[in-house]
């Protein structure tokens, strides 16, 4: 065989291999394994002082989920309360694979691929709301600035808690002052309460975005 014909044949084989790879079967996993893992994650919620603080580096590179999504994946009903409402558990905090698994309109193959992605993550970071002290935002006429307490909890791939980052943040001062001025009725105006919830949603996302930044930056 000449060098030219060998090179031609090698090129053909390379193209065939590349085509096979591009149409190859993507890895999948049983979503039931994700449900079992999330049950373990929920069960292993740490108490105060149970685990060390997370460093900024420990919160970058894993799969992220809100506590509400953990419960949905685990098929465990959420305890009623403001801590589990959507405005404090926004989908922006969930990894795409997690959103696909809880979407009833997603096909089974996509869900199996999403399950594999979640199960292959180096760690899981769960955003858990522990405290909602924001009376005006929830429709109670108590004219004071709202406060939210949350934790980012890191779990290893088997659901064991490794570390925690605690955060407390307040309603934006200008939005809180605006709401107090607007609240001249005997009850909270639903539109004002909604504006405060939207503000807390935005403040939450800004604080989460800063989780991975070292304090000296």
Task: Describe, in plain words, how this protein is organized in 3D.
This protein is α+β, with helices and mostly antiparallel strands. It has one domain. It contains seven helices and four strands; from the N terminus they run H-H-E-H-H-H-E-E-E-H-H. The protein has helices at 3-22, 31-43, 67-74, 96-102, 108-119, 173-182, 190-209; strands at residues 63-66, 124-133, 147-155, 161-170. The protein has a four-stranded mixed beta sheet with strand order 1-2-3-4. Helix 2 (31-43) packs across helix 3 (67-74). The longest helix has 20 residues, at 3-22. The protein is elongated, with a radius of gyration of 23 Å. Residues 2-22 have low confidence and may be disordered.
In short:
This protein has about 220 residues and is of the alpha+beta class. It is about 40% helix and about 15% strand.
- The helical percent reads 40-55%
Q: For the record, give the distance between the C-alpha atoms at the N and C termini, rounded to a whole number.
A: 63 Å
Number of helices: 7
Unreliable stretches covering 5 or more consecutive residues? 2-22
Which structural class should the secondary elements be placed in?
alpha+beta
Tell me the strand order in the biggest sheet: 1-2-3-4
Strand-helix topology:
Blueprint: H1 3-22, H2 31-43, E1 63-66, H3 67-74, H4 96-102, H5 108-119, E2 124-133, E3 147-155, E4 161-170, H6 173-182, H7 190-209
Parallel strand pairs: 1-2
Antiparallel strand pairs: 2-3, 3-4
Helix pairs in contact: 2-3, 4-5, 6-7
Question: What are the key terms here?
Answer:
alpha+beta; four-stranded mixed sheet; about 40% helix; 4 strands; about 15% strand; single chain; elongated
